Amino acid sequence: MSIQLTKQFVAFFLILLGITALSILAILGIETAGHHIPQKDLITDYFMALTWAIILSFSILLWPIPTRHKRALEIVWIAKIFVTLGIMLFYEYNYGLDAYYYFYSAKTGDFAWQNFEFGVGTPNMINLARLHQYFLADSYHALKVTSAMIGMIAIYIFYRAAVLFLKSDDLRFFYILALYPSILFWSSILGKDPLMFIGIALYVYGVVGWGKSGKGQYILWGALGVWIASFIRLWYAPILLAPLAVFFILGTKNIFAKIVFIGIVAVAFLFSFSLFAERFSIETTQDLVAATNTISSSWTHGGSGQEISGGVTSVSSMLAFAPIGSFTALFRPLPGEVLNAFGLLSGLENFILLWLTFLAIKRSRLKDLKEPLVLWAIVLVMSWSVIYGFVSFQNLGSAARFKLQILPVLLGLILYLSRHRNKFYPPHRNC
Question: Is the residue at 355 inside a domain?
């Protein structure tokens, strides 16, 4: 029965792909939609992507996961391809994107391992695009499809982390994560975001797995996640490592294990922060202030750009701005702040997210904070929002894309804390 259902989903996927392709060709036109894309034959480019999407769909049937999970992934893959090869064409028609630069630069150079540079996202993206062209195809849309698959794998890893935490394999939460509009869209774009997303997913999976079981294999997954995230954006290593101090306070009662764990984390944090400081020439507190102001002000462009009143001039001004910036990073734009299709949708999402957060605060109990993983998630969200507040505030249009990286943790946290305490989770299923 399960095999039959899987075949039906695959057949439905192929039909939907065909309908989507014909509809776009008839209504919008691939070449018209892709007038920004540096590609001569956009029709061939597009159908190469459709073929690649179908191949990746069949590959899901071979994944070493439960059959019910495969069905859920096939459904989500349909949604992601509809977004990637359908809705996203309207986005590409209206905006100039970094993705075009990655693709064009990949076409005009050769892949080389020495071109990778740890912590520098743009050259790494270009080199990865060259690798993709070398092994697969010279297709912009196919590269997008690969990015969408990376994003979907990341969502599934986040879900498996939730399963470890809740000890409940409830696929409804997977659908919430995967089909949440901002996650669905931004985890499918051609850019740094899907790669960052899967790095943070592995980090979360590793932390939750280690927190629940204490097994060393999860530390390796977490370390891999930190490495991937910081490979693209160097400053993510200290952001992800700092909240782990929670486990020294509330973790295992074994003092020796605490000392060893915090020692490893402290060394990794100091090393990553030294790389960050070297990259941005930060030697003093004033250097940090100046670097923050430079990076922050560089985002004050576009229709949704705005400036921090008075700028970032001192540590005290940074501390004073932190609550405003943190709120902006997590919950803005609010309805009506950005008057375009993406801004209106993001505003509605943030209104719902803000309401759920208030509900979570209302229903939370002090004993919830005694769970190390809950406190770690809170500290992680707060740390990320304080740091990203300085750039999110300056450009509300980009704020929604930045938030992708932390959104599954935020959603999981507020849904967990806002739950009805008199209800129990269903019994654990094998996963």
Answer: yes
Looking at 167-241, list the stretches that DSSP marks H as alpha helix, in order from N- to C-terminal side: 171-179, 181-186, 192-213, 216-232, 236-241
CB 239 within 8 A of CB 272: no
Average pLDDT, stretch 363-369?
83
Helix (H) or strand (E) holding 101: helix 98-107
Domain coverage including residue 358: 299-431
Contact 40, 28 (CB under 8 A): no
Task: Tell me if 129 sits within 8 A of 107, measured CB to CB.
Answer: no
Place of tokens 């931004």: 186
Residue 110 sits in the same domain as residue 243: no
User: Rounded distance, CA 319 to CA 258, Å?
Assistant: 31
Residue with tokens 């792909």, as numbered in its chain: 17
User: Is the distance from CB of 77 to CB of 179 less than 8 angstroms?
Assistant: no
The CA distances from residue 19 to 25, 29, 41, 118, in Å, are 10, 14, 21, 42
- pLDDT band, very low/low/confident/very high, at 389 (cuts 50, 70, 90): confident
pLDDT per position as a tens digit, 90-100 = 888 888 788 88
In whole angstroms, give the CA distance from residue 297 to residue 301.
Answer: 9
Distance between CA 156 and CA 177 in Å, rounded?
9
ω into 333 cis (within 30 of 0): yes
Torsion of CA 213, 215, 221, 227, to 10 degrees: 110
Q: Rounded mean pLDDT of the chain? A: 82
Same domain, residue pair 32 and 164: yes
Write the DSSP string, 326-377: HHHHHH-SPTTSS-SHHHHHHHHHHHHHHHHHHHHHHH--GGGGGSHHHHHH
204 found inside a domain: no
Please count the structural domains in the chain: 3
pLDDT (tens digit, 9 = 90+) per residue, 12-53?
666 566 656 655 554 556 777 777 888 888 888 888 898 899
